[in-house]
Specification:
The chain is α/β, with parallel strands linked by helices. Helix content is 54%, strand content 12%. It is built from ten helices and seven strands. The chain has a seven-stranded parallel beta sheet with strand order 3-2-1-4-5-6-7, sandwiched between helices. Strand 5, helix 5 and strand 6 form a beta-alpha-beta unit. Helix 1 packs across helix 8, helix 3 runs parallel beside helix 4 and helix 6 runs antiparallel to helix 7. The longest helix has 29 residues. The chain starts with 11 loop residues before the first strand and ends in a 10-residue tail after the last helix.
Length: 295
């Protein structure tokens, strides 16, 4: 609230993937801070639930892989914001695909990139006219996994690494208009994506040919069980929402926000320790044997 009791008006911001987890936390937090939040959701009931918590919030049906829905979302943002434009875009929508590189179907890789990479570009392109009018900022949700890969997470890590590279290019391209692009690099966050990733991993394992299952079954079973435990140990998504708010509001925003002590440790280890030592440490954290049994 302002000094005279009126709500703060920080402008409009679009948050994709706002149905659960980090996206939901960002949408609600930015609403409390005084932003007019367009919350991208895939189901009407998710938007209605968010509105019960934040009546000012505006749900927008948005699947980042659906060109027609992106166009419709951009048209609604244009109509609602007019010449004022967008103050911010938070590209958060994402999924996690896991499995062994040797046997993972290429369509799974394509699905991962359609959501986590190409979908982010498509939404950004559609929203840039409104962002330019508002001299808005773009916040892209990457991950520590974009800098420190994990075994069996190559689709997810690859998509986040690509998103980081695109974000760096975009930041330099938009600099002449005074527009900033920030990258958020969370570690393990307590969100539903871990459970969804585990479910996907089980589907992948079921589709692996028999000889492949014999090679990777032990590793994958341990990794899945450990992933569930790690997800439960994650920090609250509110910590990511705080970083997003800083990226949107600070007069001196960072280019990268590392969120979580595990993320900071992982990045430092990859920077200063030999690769093979980091490989062993990562496998040990996941409870994997240093030398898989011969088959």
């Amino acid at each position: 609230m302002t000094g005279d009791g009126r709500p703060v008006d920080r402008g409009a911001v679009l948050v994709t993937g706002a149905s659960t987890g980090i996206g939901e936390a960002c949408a609600l937090h930015l609403d409390r801070l005084g932003y007019r939040v367009f919350a991208g959701v895939r189901r009407t009931e998710d938007g209605e639930r968010l509105q019960r918590e934040a009546p000012r919030l505006l749900p927008v049906i948005l699947d980042v892989t659906d060109a027609a829905l992106i166009t419709a979302a951009a048209a609604r943002v244009e109509a609602e914001t007019g010449e004022r434009g967008l103050a911010g875009l938070v590209n958060n929508a994402g999924i996690g695909v896991v499995g062994p590189v040797e046997f993972l179907d290429l369509d799974r890789y394509r699905q991962q990139f359609e959501v986590n990479y190409f979908g982010q570009i498509a939404v950004t392109q559609a929203m840039l006219p409104a962002l330019r009018r508002g001299r808005g900022r773009i916040v892209n949700m990457a991950s520590v996994a974009g800098r420190v890969s994990l075994p069996y997470f190559s689709p997810y890590s690859s998509s986040k690494h690509a998103l980081e590279a695109m974000s760096d290019s975009l930041r330099m391209e938009l600099a002449p208009w005074g527009m900033h692009v920030a990258i958020i690099e969370p570690g393990v966050i307590d969100t539903p994506i871990w459970g969804k990733g585990v479910d996907t991993a089980r589907e992948v394992i079921a589709a692996v040919p028999e000889h492949g299952a014999a090679l990777y079954a032990d590793d994958l079973a341990v990794a899945i069980a450990r992933a569930e435990d790690i997800g439960d140990e994650g920090i609250p998504p509110q910590q990511v929402a705080d970083a997003v708010a800083h990226a949107l509001m600070s007069p001196r925003p960072k280019t990268r926000y590392i969120v979580g002590s595990d993320a900071r440790v992982s990045i430092l280890a990859r920077r200063f320790l030999p690769d093979r030592l980091v490989d062993r440490l990562v496998r040990r954290r996941l409870g994997l044997a240093s030398k898989p049994a011969r088959r």
